[in-house]
Design a protein that fits this description.
Layout: H1 3-14, E1 38-43, H2 46-54, E2 59-64, H3 77-86
Helix pairs in contact: 2-3
């Protein structure tokens, strides 16, 4: 499946425009164009990212993503390490 197709499907299924949260709903980090294997979890933790890499996943779907309102916007420390593994 193409990433944009998956994103559109999930945005509609989860009706993301209906919710105004403390973080952006929907796609937070753009990844591969083609999605064959999708890993899901509650939080985009370092352990989940490492498990997704081990499973050769093309995408990760989580409830708690990386970016939150009021949080430091710098990409440092653990946030930098998690994002670096996604590349």
């Amino acid at each position: 499946m193409h990433r944009d197709e998956l994103e559109n499907h999930l945005n509609q299924l989860l009706d993301i425009s209906r919710f105004h949260d403390y973080c952006p709903n929907g796609l937070q980090v753009e990844g591969r164009h083609r999605i064959h294997t999708l890993i899901s979890g509650v939080t985009a933790s370092l352990d989940l990212v490492e498990a997704a890499i081990a499973a050769k996943a093309d995408a990760i779907l989580v409830h708690h993503g990386y970016f939150w309102r009021g949080e430091d916007t710098r990409i440092t420390g653990i946030k930098r390490r998690r994002l670096a593994l996604l590349c």
